[in-house]
Amino acid sequence: RGRMGSRLRAAWLTGKTRPMEYRVAQLEALGRFLDEKKQDILEATSLDMSKVRGRGKAQGALRRLQHLDPASGRHVEKNLVTQLDSAFIRKDPYGVVLIIAPWNYPIHLLLVPLIGAIAAGNCVIIKPSETTKNTEKLVAEALPCYLDKDCYAVVTAGVEETTKLLENKFDYIFFTGSPTVGRIIMTAAAKHLTPVTLELGGKNPCYVSDNCEVHNVARRVAWGRFFNAGQTCIAPDYILCSVEMQDKLMPALREAITEFYGPNPKESPDFARIVGDKQFRRIQALLGSGRVAIGGQTDEQERYIAPTVLADVKASDPAMQEEIFGPILPIVVVANMDEAIDFINARPRPLALYVFSCDNKVVKEVLERTSSGGFCGNDTLMHVTLTSLPFGGIGNSGLGKYHGKFTFDTFTHHRSCLHRNMGLEAINCPRYPPYNQQKLGL
Ligand code: NAD
Predict the structure, then answer these.
(1) How confident is the model over 157-179, as pLDDT tens digits?
(2) Cβ count within 10 A of residue 56
(3) Starting at the edge strand that comes first in sequence, how are the strands of the sheet with 86-93 ordered?
(4) Cα-to-centroid distance, 190 and ligand 1 (Å)
(5) DSSP state, 65?
(6) Is 10 in the pocket of ligand 1 (CB under 6 A)?
């Protein structure tokens, strides 16, 4: 590990990763990895967590290539004494960066930051999640065959080894995972004053106002909640609505779930499984909250938990104490919008916040009076499809942002530069001591 770190540090110091042609060549090699290994990636991810059909998504990330900014510096305004000089902001790489990924989208959450880090000219160490063993193995074995080994490395590590890895000095750490581990990462980074991006999670509220199209709401919420069996950081975690809306939503949610996954979701090729036994047991324990209105079936052997809706859940119930990260949707009844807003504001700031209402004023008011990493009115998850929008959390849900051009910016140091002209020394006289009254303008 130590040797690998020095190898990357040495490569960084040669300046090898800086030329634009080099970065493009490495990104193209990464593109070949995705093309040539597509089948292996799909197999590994489905072995790891019964990923369902049609998820060969990482390719799309390569479109980021177009965001490479060939201009190495942007010239800026000057003052009177620097008129003959060159003042510019240079987009510099940070150096050797570390990317740590979670298991829930094990390829996407590893490679999208990697693309940004390469594009920005860094040397990179990536650490996939040890939970998704097959994907970890595939990445560790195959990716180094495509990328320059002097500058990019894959580390396979569990908690203990990652703790050791974090003792090293990096120039940037990009972490995606839980808020608990986020704190550990930030503490380790603080020892070296290393800047960090923390892409974390939490409970994403979804307020459904009385004035809305129930069937469309049900489909859009059910899709967001049950996609990847609820193991999505921006999934709507719970619904806040009136007791009347809860009654109306229940049959509509049942209909949407049956429409998507058939009468027995266990047999649906489009419904995923829980990633591991530990996670399965944790989620299963949350089924005791409120009243099971839809679903509730489990099969430990298969790590299957049916798409489930819990009615009349209380704020003090277990399902409301932690991020669910599974196919369970609790409904918490509130009297009105004001109560929903108070409920949201009394809790840690979420990564995503959802509001459904036919009345634009309601959507705007909830947006205005709350705070969250991202926001989507009248749908779930969809804001993340826009690479023109920065993606990231606030407070407990994270620090920093990426996606599209923002990924490139995240891994880029904006270096302030002034290149002075050596002539016209007379202009400088007033700033040199000794200071007399004339120099001080008295
Ligand atoms: P996790 O925090 O347990 O693990 C994430 C990574 O950290 C893994 O690579 C793991 O090996 C490493 N890690 C775990 N414990 C560590 C320790 N003590 N020291 C150092 N490294 C350690 O998260 P997870 O279970 O893999 O993923 C689920 C969480 O990630 C959820 O909270 C989810 O909301 C969040 N998430 C956030 C985003 C986002 O973009 N904001 C995306 C996906 C998942």
Answers:
(1) 999 999 999 999 999 999 999 99
(2) 15
(3) 73-75, 86-93, 412-419
(4) 19
(5) G
(6) no
User: Rounded distance, CA 353 to CA 342, Å?
Assistant: 14
ipTM of this complex: 0.97
For residue 291, give both structure tokens: 């009243």
What's the DSSP call for residue 205?
A: E
From the CB of 47, is ligand 1 less than 6 Å away? no
Tell me the catalytic residues.
Answer: 199, 233
What ranges in 143-270 are assigned the alpha helix state H? 159-165, 179-191, 214-226, 243-261
Parallel/antiparallel/unpaired status of strands 374-377 and 352-356: parallel
pLDDT in tens, 310-351: 999 999 999 999 999 999 999 999 999 999 999 999 999 999
Among the atoms of ligand 1, which is closest to the Cα of residue 158? 11
Alpha-carbon gap, residue 133 to 144, rounded angstroms:
17
- Output the residue whose Cα is nearest ligand 1's atom 42: 233
CA distances from 442 to 80, 81, 117, 426, 435 (A): 21, 20, 53, 20, 11
**pTM of this prediction exceeds 0.80:** yes
Q: CA of 239: how far to CAs of 301, 349, 416, in Å?
A: 30, 16, 47
- Report the separation in Å between the CA atom of 101 and the middle of ligand 1, taken as the mean of its atom positions: 7
Q: What token pair was written down for 113? A: 């930051």
Kindly write down the DSSP assignment for every residue of 411-427, as one continuous string: TEEEEEEEE--S--GGG
Closest of 103, 182, 117 to residue 153, by C-alpha: 117
With a 6 Å cutoff on the Cβ, whether 201 touches ligand 1 is yes
199 lines ligand 1 (CB under 6 A): yes
Tell how far CA 390 is from the center of its chain: 10
Taking the C-alpha atoms of residue 276 and residue 119, their distance in angstroms, rounded to an integer, is 34
Secondary structure (3-state) at 212: coil
Q: Is 163 near ligand 1, meaning CB less than 6 Å away?
A: yes
Q: How many CB atoms lie within 10 A of CB 205?
A: 24
